[in-house]
Amino acid sequence: MQKKIFSDFDDQNKSKKNESQLGNRLVLKVKDNYLSKVDLYRNGEFLKTADLRNNAEKKLFIIEAVNFGAIKSRLASALAISRQTIDNYLDIKEIFGYEGLIRGYSLSDSEGKSQQKMGPKSARQVPTNIMEQLTRMRGKAKEIKSKAKDECENKQLKFSSDLGYNEKAKSVTAKDQPFSQEHDWEKSRYAGTFIYLVTLISKWKWLQLVMGYFGEKYQIFMVFLLMSAQNIRSIEQLKNFHSREAGIVLGIKKIGSKPKVWEWFYKAAEMQVSVSLKMDFFYYQIYSGLVGLWLWFTDGHLLPYTGKEKVHYSYNTQRSMPVPGQTNMVTCDIDGRIVDFSIQEGKGNLRGHIVDLAKKWKEKIPGGPVMVFDREGSGVKYFSRLVRENIAFVTWEKNIDANKLKALDDELFTENLDFNGKNYRFFEGEKSFVYKPKEGDEKEHAFTLRRIYIWNKTSRRRTCGLSWTGKKNISAEDCMKAILSRWGASENTFKHMQERHPLHYQPGFKMVESEKQDIANPAVKEKALLIARAKSALNKLYKKLASSKIVLNKDGSIRKNSGKEQTKIKVAEQENRIKSLREEKKSLPERVDVSSLDDYKSFKQVDNEGKNLFDFVTSSVWNARKLMVEWLRPLFDCENELVDLFYAITYCHGWIKSSKSAVIVRLEPMEQSKRRAAQEQLCRKLTSLGASLPSGKHLIVEVGESPIK
Description:
Elements (H helix, E strand, L loop, with lengths): L1 H16 L1 E5 L2 E5 L6 E6 L2 E7 L3 H14 L3 H8 L3 H20 L7 H16 L1 H25 L10 H9 L12 E6 L5 H11 L1 H9 L4 H12 L12 H8 L7 H12 L4 H14 L7 E10 L8 E4 L4 E12 L5 E8 L4 H11 L9 E4 L6 H9 L4 E4 L5 H6 L7 E5 L2 E14 L9 E12 L4 E8 L7 H9 L8 H8 L10 E3 L4 E3 L1 H26 L15 H25 L3 E3 L10 E3 L2 H24 L9 H9 L3 E5 L3 E6 L5 H16 L9 E6 L6
Parallel strand pairs: 6-10, 10-11, 21-22
Antiparallel strand pairs: 1-2, 2-3, 3-4, 5-20, 6-8, 7-8, 8-9, 11-15, 12-13, 13-14, 14-15, 16-19, 17-18, 20-21
């Protein structure tokens, strides 16, 4: 008994030695004695794993750990590196983005060296020199970006230069610049919306991007930002908002009347630049490290159409029926930040979208992300295509034999995992596939996928996932977490957004002629109906034939005009008719153009130019919200109330003042001391970002009592 006690004590001691406290409730756990594989936890909940033998993965892990709130000195000690190394990684990521970090860019010029020698404390003491250094380094980064642009094979991808957009934004006349009107303190019940603007301008260069494309027509994007932040479901609902109080927070003096807002919208939509705008925005996010690059989750979501025009049908999962509409293919990272979206006509093509997405970002993301999708993408032909095109993926397995899974011995499930409040056990196997093309030049393709057997101990269910990760070093546990991260207990981002943002809103329904005018051939359906009826009649004849008695003549021969013989003749005729109908059906084309048919209207398609602009703003606001919630997390220890606290801050009333050099927004303080402390620290964080307008005005957020006496 004594020996067992000391053995347990030694095990606990050993476990503690493999753990490092990083601060802000973060714990680093080392999986082996060689510091090669580590896991990051917060409050006992798994956040991220990394193989430190991979240099790129190690750098990304360090950056994300710091973003989660890890204290740099403790992180450096735990990973046996210097604190300066972490600072260098952060500086390289800030200047060159994730691409520069992964490709090994360094601050090797003279300014960079001098900055390294000074160290972080000295750097803060001479901000002027540091600003000059960063300016020169950004110039160098601009040159590297230009080279990357020339090397890009996809010539249609527009390259975003925030400096270029900033110059375009500055070219807007002084009176049309945002917050051009100077005024003393004015009250606004929508002052909390201002924090979105500060974050988007400082981190995404959002206003420069919008004004670079649209010039003085940027006002509609400010209105869309207010709608997304305040959950305003349509332009018509703006009549319930105080136009002056909302306008001064957005920098457009006041929101115009409904006809004026529609005029702003149509002027922006007529420019037809939404596709380029989205590409530049998504590219900047990826290049600047504002979204994750490891796992990308893609799902299709219904955008219903209730108008009178004839459009293609999408599918309503909740109602389990097809309905008129479109499908929005949304891709998110592991933290639910929107990476890309594409609106497709009708049901949409999830498989094609994933392949196109991988190709589009292949040159920008070394190795490419791992694509995660649900059972809709399952299929041997599609799996073969992904493997041949070197696209890593993780998905659920479709059409699993539940009885075979139940028959598996419990002892096979050797691994244990607690995830989303549920207990799982799992183990990894393999499953071989052979794709045999029916026709064409494709060759037969044999391949093997990883098969993860999952046993949900909480719900007592078993299922399987499939994965192909190529040369990527991804464990079975990581594959399993990927499948469980956006489905099941943790639903996808798109459905979370519906509660807080007017996601389904379509500003304007301009209809254009659809390019997809083909439908399933109605003649094929008619033939199939005739065949079904003929089969039903034939079955009746079979039953009649079986129950009919044989009638014989006096000489013992079968009477030819008996009921049984007549039934035989009818059976043969019916069988020949079915055979003839099948041949006729086979000769018909499966799909036909509606223009070749009588009494058929042509299909219309919703022009998504306006919807793309609105969803661009909604995605921007959502991603900014994700970032600010992460900033707020270390400041507030009640995880269950964290998101509600953030939205409470965004709905705060306050006061705004616009001077020659700055725009100052003061939010009214929250009543609870703990919440007020978090609110104040978040506002200090936002102010420290140094956000400024194209006109040069600084944006400042603070918390305090009313300045109006």
